[in-house]
Amino acid sequence: xxxxxxxxxxxxAQISVMHQLGSSFHMIYRYVKKSRSAIRSYxxxxxxxxxxxxxxxxxxxxxxxxxxxIRVVSNSPKSLNDIRAELNLSVCKQTVHNAxxxxxxxxxxxITRNHMKRRSQLVHHQTLxxxxxx
Length: 134
Fold this sequence. Notes:
The protein is mostly helical. Among the domains are: 9-48, Arc Repressor Mutant, subunit A; 63-103, Orthogonal Bundle (Arc Repressor Mutant, subunit A). Helices cover 59% and strands 0% of the residues. The protein is built from seven helices and no strands. Helix 4 packs across helix 6 and helix 5 crosses helix 6. The radius of gyration is 29 Å and the shape is elongated.
């Protein structure tokens, strides 16, 4: 679940002043329009308020591994399994694919209607050639 927006500097100042003047959490809450638990968390440790880093699942592939993947992929037609084997990565091929997709430097051109039309014409032409040769 995400976090609520932090107090602005002016709200922090208002909370501090009201607390020093002896106002209750309920009065501060009504004036600043922030929850009492948010006010309490600020007053418990105002110096470190909002400095906690978001945690999450660590990546299987380090940034160095991602750079190496992009370096290998950038100018070769290797498969995902070949890349994985060359770099000795102990991850699945989908993870390698995700790293390539995330990089935004390796981009596959979208196929257009003109490409599809030419492709079908080429296949049609090749089948005619094969039929005429046999």
